[in-house]
Amino acid sequence: MKPRPRLALLPAAALVASLGLAVPARAQSTYPFQNPRLPLNTRVGDLVGRLTLDEKVSLLHQYEPAIPRLGIKAFKTGTEALHGVAWSTDVHDGGAVVTAKGTVFPQAVGLASTWDPALVKRVGSAVGDEARGYNTINPDVWGVQLWAPVVNLLRDPRWGRNEEGYSEDPLLTGTISTAYGSGMEGGDPGYLKAAPVLKHYLGYNNEVHRDTTSSDLRPRVLHEYDEKAFSPAISADAATGVMASYNLVNGRPATVDPSLNDAVRSWTRKDLLNVTDAGAPNNLTGSEAYYATQPEADAAVLKAGLDSFTVDDTDGSKTAAAVKSALSQGLLKESDVDTAVRHILSIRFRLGDLDPDGGPYAKITKDVIDSPANRALARQTADQAAVLLKNSGHALPLDAAKTRKVAVVGPLEKTLYTDWYSGALPYKVTPLDGIRERLGAGGSVTDSEGADRIALKDVATGRYITAGTGAGAVLKESATSADTTTQFDAFDWGQGVLTLRSVANGRYAGYNFTNFVNDQDQPNGWFVQQQFKLEKQDDGTYVIRYAGYETDQSWFGDKKYVAAATDGTLTLTTADGAAHFAKDTVSSGVDDAVRAARGADAAVVVVGSMPFINGREDHDRTTMALAEGQEALVKAVRKANPHTVVVVENSYPTTLNWEQDNVPAILWTTHAGAETGHAIADTLFGDSDPAGRLTQTWYRSDAGLPDILDYDIIKSDRTYLYYKGDPLYPFGYGLSYTAFRYGKLRVTSSGGHVDASVAVTNTGKRAGDEVVQLYTHQRTSRDKQPLRQLRAFQRVRLAPGRTTTVRLRFDVADLAHWDVTRNRPVVEGGTYDVMAGASSADIRQRATLPVRGETIPARDLSRPTRTADFDDYKGVRLVDETKARGDAVGAADGDWVRFTGVALGSGATTFTARTAATAAGTVEVRLDSPTGPLAGTAEVAPTGGVYSYATSTAALHGAKGHHDVYLVFHGDLRVSTFSLR
């Protein structure tokens, strides 16, 4: 830690008094740990030595209590800050209510879509400032250890949390996360403005049964893909820890994954403060049933490398009791607790939390929240994140001088939605607002949300579902005529799911576990209770299916349909008891939108997602399609007005096949915060050149995607790295309002680096941005290689006719892949293609790069070999060898693994394997195919449990020369290691 000579030390008594704490007599002296001039390790060691065991244990919980005798205040780990400080709202500050709605930047996938690390670093810095500002208002709510960014790779576009990640590519993810994290941390070499924590380690990309499913990460996928997303920010000191994910990895809960210590801490020399996800320690004894008792579980958590327990809300007593029980049972040593406490305190010292004056960032006040500068930055970021997907016949940009009448229609045309990890919007510029403002007084704007306005009448009683006005009222069957209190605007979010917004007060109707009320500004909450389905019956009536997210829970039961109680209030019942309703369509949304669009100079259709409904934490998407009603709206408006532009506002790839074939222009943006409408208008009218680029492959259909639980991107040809099909839009894709020419690509290599340069010229008539992307492809290899892989990129801005030379660099070591034969990275010698282009599929220039590297030798199975280090497989699962560490192969009848290019020499005579099984089975050793010559069969006897291993052997015959060796399994068994000698 860099000393700060300017600091005058406060007496301990003054420090404690400033915290509003009682000052014990023994706290009168100044302790060494309070001296910022001392080295960090000295301060940490001094404080740890002064803490009692109970005090140390108390610091292991998310809500760390104050220690008054040492003048230590309370500390909270974890403030969500994915694209601004989350969950911001009006708060109490000194008895007064303070509006603390901060800057909401584009969702994380939108930040990455800028392909601009410098800009993202500025965003991160603004978020760090605002986190400090919130902390001055209420540190018990907003700490400065920030749980962001999310660096889980966007391997599967159906992942419910797609909005939270950056990219399917590890380099882009690592670069953007490093930028965001370093911005949050600030520039002081010894102190942290905020302490970012990377989420969620490791292999987490599905919500379905996320706490009980296992992500199988074979060594190549683990080391080449998943770890590569986490290591850059840690290595660059742009993150101060990781949060363990809920899922299992190779059969072991990530909460006790030993790589939290073995790998993550190896990426840096600095202390890391690693945390559990909320409730995860209790999952170990609950849903995962991995340990019998909580003391065993908590001991394993600490030993694996996690330091802070996020569990039991603010109650740290249960964690303290479990840890102390683990100590008394000998499951932990006090030194284990000390290690975790040192990690915790190290970060607190770097945050200035234990300095008498709070450190250099303590002077940041709440005035930074939603500052004019941050508003401008939010608009700039939203501008640069927009991706132009199609622009046929120069439909865009709109000419404001000629385009004077614009229709703005669609379900998102005059609303902005927040997501689960968003802050509250301090103001809103909707697409309608932005376009109307851009056109000015001389322009004319017509609009329609394109939603049907309906009323629902119980055919048995003749009474309508009726809502009150004001802040919200209980819905009842009462009115006998369809006035405004009975009318609802029905918004279609796909697969039959509707939200019903009351015309009486503009609030959404939903269930609150007691009644149905119209009281919400937008669908929200962990259980999104504002969801319904109108199911048409054979007689033409409808039953209302309540489709709130809690209906997916086993405890909810079968009460999923709406009926009226005797007093007319709506209640839930089974399908047999559901009331039947006539649906009166007061006005047609499509017809309204068509009327607005007909005759306009341009029609802008704003469609997309509702972030709490179409995919979010705990809910994967089951389709990538646009909502059926929204697609019908687009088709109708396109038919009514040939000058139709579609704006898609959502958080993930969407199958826009009809739109791509039939609509002149398509613009994509994430839910981009309060400035969304300005950004859309800026882009549509050409005030901002669209230079955002896609960070994922957009597939044409759900049909070709493997199961969401299939994490092996190499075998299943996932992501742009391995996908051989024709995507709707490729990774790195995005159009511009101008054009760029690439000159000759020049590539040189020296000093372990590869330098590439290419002249890029703006050949159009407008200034614009280009994202120059550099890819490589390894022509020959022992192992399956990516079709292309991003190595470097740069976003450049050029005036018309101007040329710049873009220089890009990567390390030769970056060309390495994981050699499973020797368990280490290897750069193979050979010829590599180097490609520069505007996307992964739009390669403009090529060069070749000869690399002097290694040749992977023939495989040697005479030494004990981990079975998980296979080259190919069918059906097997990766499982935990023991609860503490190690991977094994779990197999069922007929499964196999292959080991390629094995040198058996003059003949191997014995197969030996470490096996575990609960019932008898066999392992066949076959040559060259799973049905090839049988070299031997090992009988596997029951061992009494999956963690009880024994030795199984077989005599081998004809196992000589060079062959691919297959192990073919029969029975339910596990194999950790084997050899052929």
Form type: globular
CATH class of one domain: Alpha Beta
Level of helix content?
Answer: 10-25%
Oligomer status: single chain
In whole angstroms, how far apart are the ends?
55 Å
Give the strand content. Answer: 25-35%
Q: Over all CA atoms, what is the radius of gyration?
A: 30 Å
CATH topological fold name of one domain:
TIM Barrel
Total helix count?
19
Strand order of the largest sheet: 12-29-28-27-13-14
Low-confidence stretches: 1-29
CATH homologous superfamily assignment of one domain: Glycoside hydrolase, family 3, N-terminal domain
What's the average pLDDT?
95
Keywords: Hydrolase, Signal
Organism: Actinoallomurus bryophytorum
GO molecular function: alpha-L-arabinofuranosidase activity; beta-glucosidase activity; carbohydrate binding; xylan 1,4-beta-xylosidase activity
Family: Belongs to the glycosyl hydrolase 3 family.
Question: Any key phrases for this structure?
Answer:
981 residues; alpha+beta; TIM Barrel; Trefoil (Acidic Fibroblast Growth Factor, subunit A); Immunoglobulin-like; six-stranded mixed β-sheet; six-stranded antiparallel β-sheet; 19 helices; 50 strands; globular; disordered N terminus; hydrolase
